Every structure is written in C-alpha cells, then in structure tokens.
Amino acid sequence: MERVVVARVDDIPMLRGRSVMAGGIEIALFRLSNGDIKAIENSCPHKQGKLSEGIVCDNHVFCPLHDWKINVNDGNVQAPDEGCVHTFDVEVDPATGEISVLIHGVISGLGA
Amino acid sequence: MKKQLILIGNGMAGVRCIEQIIKLNPNKFEITIFGSEPHPNYNRIMLSSVLAGDAEMKDIVINDWDWYKDNNISFYPGETVVSIDTTKQTVSSNKDRTISYDELIIATGSLPFMLPIPGADKEGVIAFRDIKDCEAMVDASKKYKKAIVIGGGLLGLEAARGLLNLKMDVSVVHISNYLMERQLDETAARMLQRELEGQGMRFLLEKNSESIIGRKRVSALRFKDGTEEPADLIVMAVGIKPNIEVAKLAGVTINRGIVVNDVLETNTPHVYAVGECAEHRGVAYGLVAPLWEQGAVLARNLCGVEGDTYQGSILSTKLKVSGVDVFSAGQFTDDASTRSVRVQDDFTGIYKKVLIRDGKIVGAVLFGDITDSSQLFKLIRTGEDVTGREKTIVLGESDGSKSGGISVADMPDDEQICGCNGVSKGTIVQAIQERGLNSVDGVRACTKASGGCGSCKPLVADILKCVLGDEAAEDKAGICTCTELGRDEVVAAIRNMELSTSKEVRNVLGWKNPEGCSKCRPALNYYLGMVWPEDHADERESRFVNERNHANIQKDGTYSVVPRIYGGVTSPKELKRIAEVAEKYDVPLVKITGGQRLDLFGVKKEDLPSMWEDLDMPSGYAYGKALRTVKTCVGSTFCRFGTQDAMAMGIQLEKKFERLNTPAKVKMAVSGCPRNCAEATIKDVGVVAVDNGWEIFVAGNGGAKVRESDLLVKVKTDEEVMEYSAAYLQYYRENANYNERTAPWVERVGLDSIKSALETAEQRKALIERIDHALGLLVDPWKEAIEEKAVRSLYEAIPVPVKG
Known about the structure:
The complex is a heterodimer. Helices cover 0% and strands 41% of the residues of chain A.
C-alpha cells in the first residue's frame, strides 16, 4: 500500500472537484459541503468523462459529458445507468490540511 | 457606536430576519443571538425528512457555526432568556448573563402542546418539535416496537410516517372522526386514511385520551370510553402554542401570541416579534412562508427602509409524506355563500374540490393529483374572476385529443423514439408496463428517453397516453425532480422572500435533495443572478463545466477556445496572432465555426489562461447560456444589393450584449437586405435591412427543431433596433424557463403577449434600465482568469506537496 500526499484542503473550493495524479492513476478529489474529502477514479465508466469537472450535490457527482450520476462514497453509478468507478481511502491531516490518498497495489482495470 | 440588537430564539424566523439585516446593512448593529437548543440554526421543516431517513442532521443546518463567527454575531447556544427589563432595555439568561439592547426581536417560536393528562410525564412520552425529539424516536425504535401518535393532523401524520420508516408499529389516535380536519374535508381525509392504512398505519378515530399507564415508562394509553391501547412510545402531536412566556413576564401585550402591528412591532417600544410566537391581525402562523415574509419586512424597517408593511398571508399546505399527494389552500369547507366544482374517482384515488364565491376561487382541496395546485393557489391569491371557466379549471379542456401526425400507436416497437440515447418505442412501452411508470419524468429516469436534447418529450408523453389512457400523469410543473414547484413559483419566492443563495431557496422551498441536482443547481443560480444582479454572488460550483471554465469541454477532456470576433469581422493582424497562438500551443484542429469565427480545439485545461493571455481577445462565450455570435453579411459596405450597413449594426449589437447571461444560448444575425444572406430569420434575434429601416425578427431556430422567426416590429433607425433588441432580451431573461430557447418560449407564451409587454416606450425603458444594470456588472471572464491568482490557480495542476 502506498500513501501519497496529493493536495491540501484549501486547493479545493467547496462543492468542487480537482484532478490529481497518484501512483500513475488520475484521481478526482471532491470537497463536500460537510467538509469531507472524497477520492474516486477520474473517469466516468460511460465515455471516460472527467468527473472532477462535474457538479457535486450531496454525495454525488454528475459527469460533465452525459450527466451520469455517481456516488462519491462507494463509486456506484446511479440508476438508470449502471457501473461503478474505483474509490480511494482518504486521510486529511488536521494540522496541515494535507490530503493523502491510499493506493493499494496494482488496481486492475485502471488505465495509468 | 453601533446599536445593540438582540434576537431571542435561534430558529428559522428570527435568524432569517438577521440574515436580511446583515444583507441590507452589515454595519448597523452589534448582534447577539440566544438559542435554547445547543445547535446552530437548522431547518425545522426538514425534521420529518430526517425522521423519514431522507436526510441527516448535518444536512438540515442552515447556518453553521462559522456563519456566526464570520458575521461577528455573539451567539449563546443552549442558553435561554428568562427575563426582559423593558425599562432598562436589558435581557437576562438562565446562565445569569445580562445584556442591554437598543432593539430587541423576540422569535421564540412555539411549544408543542402536551395533553395535561395523568401519566404525561412518564418516560417514553415525547413531542415532535426539535432535534432532541427526533433522536428520542430513533433511540426508542431500536429497543421498542409499539408506538402511538396522538394527533391526526399534519405534524402527527409526518411523525407517524417517520416511525413506520423506523420499523415500528404505529397507531394514530385522533379526537375527530376524520384526519387533518383543519386542512381537508371529510372525503379527502377518508381517501388519505385509506392510503396510509395501505402503508401500514393504524387509526383510532374519535378517541379521547384519558391517561397514560405504566410504571416508570409508558406501557399503554387509556381512553375515556374505557378501552386501552398498548404503547412503548407516545408522541404527542396535538398542536402547538406560541411560546410567549418571557414576553408575558415583561408586560408585552399578549393575546394568543405576542401581538404585533403591520411592521411587527409589539406595544412596547424597541421590542419586535416575528414567527410562530407572533400574532398578526389575530393570526399566529405555523408555516414557513409567512414567517419568512415577516422577517423580511422587519429587517427592512429596522434598517430604515420605510413604507414596507406585512399584510398577512394566505396559507396552503402540501403534505410531505411519501407517496401521498395532498394539497389544501384557503377555505375548504362549503358554506351558504360558496358553490363548488368536484371530481371524485375512487378507482384511481383522485379527488378535487374547488370552492367559488362570487366568481372567485376561495379555496381548494386536491388529493391524488396535485398538478393543478400551483395554478389554483395563484388564482386564490390574485382573486381573479373565473366566471365561465369554473369547470375547465378543475376538469381541464374537454377536447384533449390531438389531430394530425402519425399516431404513436401505429409505430412499430423497434422505432427509435429518443435519438440521443437510442431508446425504442418497445423499450418505453415495456418500462411503462413493467415498472408502473406514469410520467415523462419516470420514463426518463428508467430508460433515459428524452434525457438528451428533450425534443422527443411530446412523443414520450403520447406513448404514455397510448399505453395508460387517462392514467398518464400530466407533466409535473417542477423545474427538476427535486421539487414540484415550477419556474414561476421559484422566481416569485426568490423575489418575495428575498432569497439570495440557492441553498436558501432549496431550504425554504423544501427541496427533496438538500443540495439539488445537476438540473436545478445551474437553474437556481441563473434565476438568482437575474433577479438580484448585484447581490447574488455567482455560484461557480453550480455552473456547468463549460461555463465554469469558460471553454467547451470535448469528449477527451480537452477544451476548445473561441475568441470574440465582433460581427465576424477580423483583420490580418488578428488572424496572424490567432495563427501564432495555435502553433505555440500545438492546437491539433483549427475550424471555422458556423457563427463566423474560429475555434481552436484540443487545448489542455492548464494551458487555457496563458493561451487567452497570448490571444489578447475577449471571450466569445461559445460555451455559455449567453449571447454567442452576431452573424452578419457584408451589407452596403461592399455588396451591390445592400441597403444598410449590416456589419456595423452587428458589431454594435455584439458589443452591447456580449457577456449577458440568458436562460439559454442566444444567436443573432444582421442581413443588409431582404435577400437575407446572414440567415437572420432562423436566429433568436434577427435584423433584416429594408429600404427605409430594419425589420426585427425573433424566436427563430436553426437547430434540432427548425423554426422560422416571427416579425416583432419594423423600425426606422439604428437606435430603435438597439432599443427593441434590449427590451426583448430582458423580457426573455425575466420570463423564460432556464434552458428554454427563445423559439419554444415564444410558442409557449405567444408572440402577442411579448408584443404587448414591449408596446409602450415606458415599458421598454424599464426593461432597458434593468438590462443595462445587469450588463454594467459583467467583466470579461478570460481577463479575470488571467489577472486573478485565485481563479487562475484552479486551472493549473496542484503543486505536488512533499511526499508524506
């Protein structure tokens, strides 16, 4: 397992997303209204839209390309569409605001 | 020195008033708030959603702890004001804190009315009013099984539904012979009861509670007729009473509530009251809309805006219990002076009753189908005369059939209905039958049909009618699936209640998803900006990616860049610069657009600001719901047929209206003669030169649904072209639905209504003043991204921190 510092909380405005690279993977970080930081694979299972550019509502992000709705906690695509994206555990250092993403070995099916 | 303002009560009405005061005059008062509950300000209306499991506690907070800090408010949570000295002008709390005031607002809300019966103090007997009560219900549901709700009114039924969701057995005890007798007539109440029984609720009607039995904790409820009903939890929801204790002790005049006049003043100088504790013209309100209006009026008066008064409110109720549609407004029981129109269908569970007095609608009850509720409520409020239309208002037009066109019944099953998402008629029919869908929204949610460009929506509606007959639901008026409120209601609420953030709108109007969805977020942001151009801070997080990044995202995640080329007129120097920039950034494709400009494709997000800097041209807004381009022909400058200078006219229009936010994209064109080479008659606004002036056409479209434009007016001078274009665009901005192009808008509202809105010079002048005001506040977004570090950094990659 690899623990990679990817950003600081201040880098992400409220209810917005940012794209970062960690372990050769492009990850979308989101800052939810309750302050939580979430990390998922930055690629919609439909047509690989950049989820970091989507509109964030509650625990979901809407893909900017075709409006697929994806849960940022479990990565599941919401009905009527189907599929899921990989999610990553996140740690935030309360003192420095540094965000770390935990990468577990080689993740199958993820393009680097 | 600032004046001291104290608010007693940290609830929705009082804090709402404070928010307004801060908005109007942030420096006028030193503000102190006392709140008995140990929480920041939250949305009490949403408690039933929390109980129903649709929202969490943290979702219903309106203003978090930071809000108090950011606005320099001294906030004492968990502290109750126990006395007011109106002579010395001080208040004292239960923690021995005494503070003096210049102005005092009492917003203590109401208390749940607890039946004073023996045993009411036993463990397991609670009210349904605050977060603590919700927590008690959730805790009880983990250990116990049997719950009784006393009270079959709005609050009681919401509590009962929540307890059902918590997997408890629920009986509702009610003293009358039918439910919700303050909002419904007996027929509607019976239908509601049947529906709720179907969901698992039990009802004990005409039962008078006598005492609560149990040792330490409740074990049963005994009635006056001698019968008993076992219970581990009893929720009393029999009503609320204004919380007036502290005002009463201070000698402020009290009736049922704290008596206030039309500017929310009590009889004591410098003491005001708003919300559920206040009584205005004999009425103490218990719903949010009136409280909001009161707060706004008081805020304006405290800030010295004179002449604004509160005139009372007409109430309407929608039951917020899942799966049941109930609406009631105004007077709902017949009397000697009313006549009514009724529809009752026990098979589909629909009941509608509209009461009419002297030709005016005075009240309505709807059950099962509340699609007409907003229209009815509007008619009740405006008091419009409906003589001769009584029946159609309730029953709809008798001739609903459509003629012409190919019937969807004759289409083969494999015929494609939605071209965007590739959905066939067969798939839609199957979804309607197997999943019990009855609306276009439902079909879209399950199959994606009509989820793309939306042009197949009428076809989907026809298929619904074809499969279900009359059971197909009318299209709900809601702007998205988060709400049943239509555009007009939302915009009216923004104006009347002075809502200035989309979070406020969602909170006050009871959105189903606290943070909205990708449909309503951009829409609310537009409406707020349109109504309050100055005070609404544009919410970038609610903008679609292209408008947020000021470039068009492409399927590979790169962007395309279109600089503004006014009227399609450029120069060798400008072309060279564009060419150099294209080479410098390795742009893989340069394309001439349909709107007479150049599009540079395949640009990386992080290159955008420096590319814009090198281009040194304004944004062409090719990505926005805004004025795109003004296409022109060469006109009288070179053309042998040209009668007017089309290029100059086009450039003038583009310079005037560039950057303007509009409900949907706006395309314009100017042709220098009636040969119309600029194709102005398929544009949102098209100007065509004629011999002695210009013809202005509107509502044309050349896209998914081609529509030839309508002639709005023929004018003589260039100034008049500017005048009518500005007035027309502002009227469109103020009246169209978000995402509605001018063509469908004009078809919906009718060209005549627009012509009459632009008829007089005064009407046009007022519209022009507002559009000029909005235009004056806009800056070029590319320039902003170049110059402002905070904006620019969001385009760039995050600097990699040290590896941790």
